[in-house]
Amino acid sequence: MTYAKTIKEFERVPAKKRTLKDMQGYFKNNAAYNRLLKLNPIIYKTYTKSFAQIELTLTVLNPGAIGGEFFFTKGHIHRKNPEEAYMLLEGNGILYLQGKKTKIVKLKKGVIYSVDEGYAHRLINTDNSQLRVLTIYPQNNNPNYHVKFKKRFFK
């Protein structure tokens, strides 16, 4: 199954870019972070389209690591309208869910993964190519990005 047309369509809308500078304090190895900060690479981009009461976002998470820790998204939890679905389009990665229990989901192409209420969630790129994931969620879901994730993922 290919999603090339869907990806191209999403990548036409303006992207929100998260650079390394935007991720200050998120990676464990501060010395490695500071060394790479001079280059300030783009860690990931998001492309969002709104439809009636829902939003679809394509997240493109670049490959890479800081101090051996894989690149990841900031991650978040929803304060209201907690429903969110994830679907892998390209690449290899993990959906990390942190709540009452910790869940580590190895993403498979074309499978839809639902995030349960009360779970913070983050994407991790475990590959040498870009990770492309489509997310579907209600508008105005009020994500909280100030989550302290406990588990780290290293090469």
Write the layout of secondary structure elements.
Layout (H helix, E strand, L loop, with lengths): L3 H7 L5 E4 L10 H8 L4 E10 L2 E8 L3 E2 L2 E2 L6 E2 L5 E7 L2 E6 L3 E5 L5 E4 L4 E6 L5 E8 L4 E2 L11
Antiparallel strand pairs: 1-2, 2-3, 3-12, 4-5, 6-13, 7-10, 7-12, 8-9, 8-11
Walkthrough of the structure:
With 155 residues, the chain is mostly beta strands. Helices cover 10% and strands 43% of the residues. The protein has helices at residues 4-10, 30-37, and strands spanning 16-19, 42-51, 54-61, 65-66, 69-70, 77-78, 84-90, 93-98, 102-106, 112-115, 120-125, 131-138, 143-144. A 6-stranded antiparallel β-sheet has the order 1-2-3-12-7-10, with no helix packed on it. Strands 9-8-11 form a 3-stranded antiparallel β-sheet, with no helix packed on it. It has a two-stranded antiparallel sheet with strand order 4-5. The chain is globular. The protein starts with a helix and ends in an 11-residue tail after the last strand. The model has no long low-confidence stretch (mean pLDDT 92).
